[in-house]
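[step 3/7] fold_predict: job queued, chain A
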Amino acid sequence: QVQLVESGGGLVQPGGSLSLSCAASVRDFRLYTMGWYRQAPGKQRELVATITGRGSTNYADSVKGRFTISRDNAKNTLYLQMNSLKPEDTAVYYCSANSLTTLLRYWGQGTQVTVSS
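[step 4/7] structure written:
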């Protein structure tokens, strides 16, 4: 069974930085495309960034140049470095794992990120 556990959320001032982590209990971590999504109150869940097992990345336009997604395949861990944070980045951030073999998607429980002065 796939388990994803996020950590690193919290409260940060505008312009500040925060780093999220997602520990994945999966076999063959490299066979999963990993991603970060977020959901603000009253809004739909939206893509933040994804990264393939080989390291190819994709970002939402709203975070390009500010956020960096990365992964450590040896540690089964996904990361999101968030810089120059804005109040509109406030949301619950979810880690996702998309299996390339079964095409199933798994979600973590989410971690709250609040950007406020």
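[step 5/7] annotate
The radius of gyration is 13 Å.
The chain has a mean pLDDT of 97.
exit 0
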